[in-house]
């Protein structure tokens, strides 16, 4: 099942058409794309029997972030072996956690304003919570995931590295630096939810390629590690990390420039396209 945020309204995506959830459910579920995660199992039960006959064609440019206002955003650093190596770090013993502020969220096709001369790309698989999680064992971690979407952890590297201690959250939270989409896909849709290909390209040139089977901490392990410390809530978002190939890890370094097109693809989910524009 795929759900999306179409012009601010929750929809079920059926092939190339969109079914408005509030209308199709006769008001049982709100049009608010964020509200559905609080009633995720009830929504799944209804959606499995929903009549797609009233679904209508739509423009992909009208899609927004499938989870527009999560209460918490957890982002994981150094979570691919090859990315840790290119960054000059040993593999972490526990997840390296920071946040992206929600004001950075944007849709899958919006323009992104460059915040400085060292803006970098980071393709990521993004996991969304469908249940409250507290002290969840890893073997049950997938039970708490509503679905998966594509993400970019865009980063202004100069801001990120400024000061006596790194400013990870600040450097990664400029407006538009948290694009997700194009929709959320439930885990049952994947042939192997623990081995998903992902990558990104700039102006048609491949920059990153990876598979989630190379994660240091898998999605269910992240649910376990994070929920051991804090309560994860329905609709919370986890950026699970990026593979090797970031601009800061290249020699010479390479960063995004005005006019660049950044294309992000995650297997089984789809593609996002973002044009970088000057401030």
TrEMBL record:
InterPro entries recorded: FAH, Fumarylacetoacetase-like_C, Fumarylacetoacetase_C_sf
A single MF term (Gene Ontology): hydrolase activity
Alphabetically ordered keywords of this record: Hydrolase, Metal-binding
Domain Fumarylacetoacetase-like C-terminal per the UniProt entry, residue ranges: 73-276
Gene3D superfamilies: Fumarylacetoacetase-like, C-terminal domain
Pfam families, per database record: FAA_hydrolase
PANTHER family documented for this protein: FUMARYLACETOACETATE HYDROLASE DOMAIN-CONTAINING PROTEIN 2A, FUMARYLACETOACETATE HYDROLASE DOMAIN-CONTAINING PROTEIN 2A-RELATED
Family according to the record: Belongs to the FAH family.
Protein name according to UniProt: Fumarylacetoacetate hydrolase family protein
Species of the source: Actinomycetospora aurantiaca
């Amino acid at each position: 099942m795929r759900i999306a945020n179409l012009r601010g309204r929750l929809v079920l995506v059926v092939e190339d058409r969109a079914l408005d959830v509030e209308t199709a459910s006769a008001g049982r579920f709100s049009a608010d794309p964020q509200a559905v995660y609080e009633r995720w199992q009830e929504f799944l039960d209804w959606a499995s029997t929903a009549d797609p006959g009233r679904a209508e064609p739509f423009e992909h440019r009208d899609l927004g972030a499938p989870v527009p206002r999560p209460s918490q955003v957890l982002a994981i650093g150094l979570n691919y072996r090859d990315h840790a190596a290119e960054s000059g770090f040993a593999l972490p013993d526990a997840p390296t956690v920071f946040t992206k502020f929600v004001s950075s969220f944007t849709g899958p096709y919006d323009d992104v304003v460059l915040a400085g001369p060292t803006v970098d790309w980071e393709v990521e698989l993004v996991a969304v919570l469908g249940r409250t999680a507290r002290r969840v064992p890893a073997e049950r971690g997938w039970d708490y995931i509503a679905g998966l979407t594509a993400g970019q952890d865009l980063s202004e590297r100069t801001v990120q590295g400024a000061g006596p201690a790194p400013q990870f959250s600040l450097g990664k939270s400029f407006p538009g630096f948290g694009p997700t989409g194009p929709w959320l896909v439930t885990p049952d849709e994947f042939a192997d939810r623990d081995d998903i290909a992902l990558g990104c390209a700039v102006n048609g040139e491949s920059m990153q390629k990876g598979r989630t089977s190379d994660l240091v901490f898998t999605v269910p392990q992240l649910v376990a590690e994070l929920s051991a410390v804090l309560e994860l809530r329905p609709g919370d978002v986890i950026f699970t990390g990026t593979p090797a190939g970031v601009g800061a890890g290249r020699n010479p370094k390479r960063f995004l420039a005005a006019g660049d097109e950044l294309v992000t693809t995650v297997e089984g989910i789809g593609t996002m396209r973002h044009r970088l524009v000057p401030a």
